[in-house]
Amino acid sequence: MDNKKIAKLLKLAADLMEVKGENGFKISAYQRAARAIETLGTPVEEYVRKGILGEIQGIGGSTKKAVLQILEKETFDDLEIIQSEIPLGVQEMLKMKGIGPKKVQHFWISMGIESLGELYYACIENRLAQEKGFGKKTQDNIQLSIEFLESNKGKIHFAKALPVAEMWEKELQHLIGTENVQITGEIRRQCEIITQVEFLVQNAKQAQVLAFVQQKNIEKETIQDNIFCYKMAEWAISMKLIFVENVATELFHTSTTSEHIAELQTLGEMPAHFSEEKDIYAHYQLPFIVPAMREGRGEVTKAKAGNLPTLIEVADIKGVIHAHSTYSDGANSLKDMALACKKMGYEYLVISDHSKAAFYANGLSEGRIEVQHQEIDKLNAQIADFHIFKSIEADILNDGSLDYEAETLQTFDCIIASVHSNLRMDTEKANIRLIKAIENPFTRILGHPTGRLLLARNGYPIDHEKIIDACAANNVVIELNANPHRLDLDWRWIDYALAKNVMIAIDPDAHSIEGINDIRWGVLAAQKGGLYKEMCLNHKRLGEFKQWLAAK
Ligand SMILES: [Zn+2]
Ligand SMILES: [Zn+2]
After folding, report:
1. Cα of 520 to ligand 2 centre, how many Å?
2. How does strand 348-354 pair with strand 319-323?
3. How far, in Å, from the CA of 290 to the mean position of ligand 1?
4. Cα-to-centroid distance, 393 and ligand 2 (Å)
5. How remote is the CA of residue 158 from the centroid of ligand 1, in Å?
6. What beta strand segments (E) does 408-540 contain?
7. What is the whole-number distance in angstroms between the Cα of residue 323 and the centre of ligand 1?
8. Which domains does the chain have, with CATH numbers?
């Protein structure tokens, strides 16, 4: 189990204890342990293997026991006890953004509210606004937050679904042969949010597959004709097995949107019979269009005109842009991050720790920037065939300015400008704030343009066309933040950016060595948007990237 997950469970126990109003010492012990593990560069399991778990600062007697239990059974005694003492609906309230244990305690103990549904009703009745310390604004936010949570039930991130789907596919292929089973649906289309994991399975193998699934002890949900749905314990979503006569012929219809089919039909009637999906495109005299692009967003017209792009691949990424080190809130040292990038075959690292306004993330003061720059110079002299560029993820302040003076900004090779605070803005305010940052002559890349967190936070509303136009006018690259929880810029806007000649940087925003691999999710999302390597900033080789830096 990874450190993040362990820390999350420890933090959950602390939160629930706070909701219940338990002893403060115990709560702070769990909070401390969660923080310690979250920022650890090495997997906790390694400490356990070496018998030095107790040496991690912040891990003591009872929390040490908890960590060991988590590794063994994915939960621990104190957590199980506290979970059994608080209604499930109350526990769910902790999932709301911006609602901490103190507020949840108030809803539960003082107001007698025991579920999200009841809380929503209390908002509608304006009861929350009348409570001391809440007010109309908090009430409105809670109402929105509950609506958001409800609308996202039964959905998970692509990055969470894909590895499990691939594991199932592999096992099933092993069981009944490669040609008799195939992932289809949203996963095959590389959708950023998944509601269902779907497989096409050869009908003749039904009995064999059903027996295999039964062994796995997963709960059957529904059976309709040849479609079997199962509830996956670790997910909020279901797995669908679609038994068909011919896997190859069904592949097209199960991994294509109706909008794409409608686009094809403008070119003439679709053939009723075909043996493989490539035959459909051949019928229309079109090049093959991959499932990721079958969205009905003009891809057929492009294909017809011979303008279908050769999509970017993970191997096209030559440098890592946007990563954090222990200088701010990253888990690994600058040196280790650089060496890891080099080992993975990248030619450069654009290290961009947090800036001073991001105090919660240990953002860098002017003095610490100097220290970091000295270390970068030293490392660049030591590490051959690789380069670390001096960057910073500068906070875009409320008025659109960046949080350093020009004399500091000019010491960097590359400024990434991002919004991290005061996220509640209307479109007009967000546009003004972002455009001012884009017009700052030091800004080279606009970081995660909307601040969204998929399935958790909508992000502030922006007028995408205006923002992209401003980037075009100021020669600023837009980030596609590759963290699977962000994928921001949304791939649906890549087309517009390309039309305006704005380059996209596929940035992992890595907070650890492991996080560098998130580049993959960014690339898969970018493929949906039709991105090709020539318009991806970090496709540039080291020399070309240096030229790009020098060009502004
Ligand atoms: Zn950021
Ligand atoms: Zn970042």
Report:
1. 17
2. parallel
3. 32
4. 6
5. 21
6. 414-418, 443-446, 477-481, 504-507
7. 10
8. 3-151 (1.10.150.110), 154-249 (3.30.460.10), 256-308 (3.30.210), 314-550 (3.20.20.140)
CA angle 448/452/457 to nearest 5° reads: 160
Ligand 1 mean position, distance from CA 417 (Å): 8
What ligand is nearest to the CA atom of residue 391? 2
For strands 387-395 and 348-354, give the pairing.
Answer: parallel
Residue where the block lists tokens 């896997």: 247
Whole-number Å distance, alpha carbon 488 to ligand 2 midpoint, is: 12
Q: What is the pLDDT of residue 153?
A: 79
Rounded Cα distance, 150 and 157, in Å = 16
Ligand nearest to the CA of 510: 2
Alpha-carbon distance of 78 to 57, in angstroms, equals 21
Instruction: List, for residues 5-48, the tens digit of each pLDDT value.
Output: 999 999 999 999 999 999 889 999 999 999 999 988 889 999 99
The pLDDT tens digits for 48-103 are: 999 899 889 999 888 999 999 999 999 999 999 999 999 999 999 998 888 899 99
- Quick one: residue 348, left, alpha or beta (phi over 0 = left, psi -120 to 50 = alpha)? beta
Determine the pLDDT at residue 234. 62
Ligand closest to CA 511: 2
Distance 387 CA to ligand 2 centre (A): 20
93 Cα to the center of ligand 1, angstroms: 26
Which amino acid is present at 92? E
pLDDT of residue 233: 63
Give the integer Cα–Cα distance in Å for 82 and 14: 10
Give me the mean pLDDT over the 250-267 stretch.
96
CA of 234 to the centre of ligand 2 (A): 29
User: What are the structure tokens assigned to 218, written together?
Assistant: 């997963």
CA atoms of 356 and 404, how far apart (whole Å): 8
Rg over alpha carbons for the chain, rounded to the nearest Å, is 25
The tokens for 91 are: 């526990």
Distance CA 158, CA 527 (A): 14
Q: How far is the CA of 305 from the centre of ligand 1 (A)?
A: 39
| Torsion over CA: 529, 534, 535, 540 (sign) | positive
CA of 516 to the centre of ligand 2 (A): 12
CA of 479 to the centre of ligand 2 (A): 11
Strands of the sheet with 238-244, listed across from one edge = 181-184, 196-202, 238-244, 227-231, 219-224
- State which H helix or E strand residue 76 sits in: none
Pick the ligand that lies closest to the CA of residue 329.
2
Backbone angles phi, psi at 511, to 5 degrees: -105, 10
Q: Rounded to the nearest 5°, which phi and psi values hold at 129?
A: -60, -25
> Strands, DSSP E only, in 396-475?
414-418, 443-446
- Give the distance (Å) from ligand 1 centre to CA of residue 419: 7
Query: What spacing in Å lies between the alpha carbon of 27 and ligand 1's midpoint?
Result: 29
**CA nearest to 491, candidates 533, 435, 530:** 530
Helix axes 158-176, 519-528, angle to 10 degrees: 90
